[in-house]
Amino acid sequence: MITLHTWGTPNGRKISVALEEMGLPYAIKVVDITKDQQFEPAFLAISPNNRIPAIVDADGPDGAPISVFESGAILLYLAQKTGRFGGSDAREKIAVWEWLMWQMGGFGPMPGQVHHFLMVKDEGDQRYGLARYSKETRRLYGVLDKQLAGRDFVATAGEPSVADFAILGWAWRHERHKVDLADFLNVQRWYGALMARPATARGFDVALA
Ligand SMILES: N[C@@H](CCC(=O)N[C@@H](CS)C(=O)NCC(=O)O)C(=O)O
Question: Which end of the chain is more exposed for a tag (fewer CB within 10 A), N or C?
Answer without folding.
Answer: C
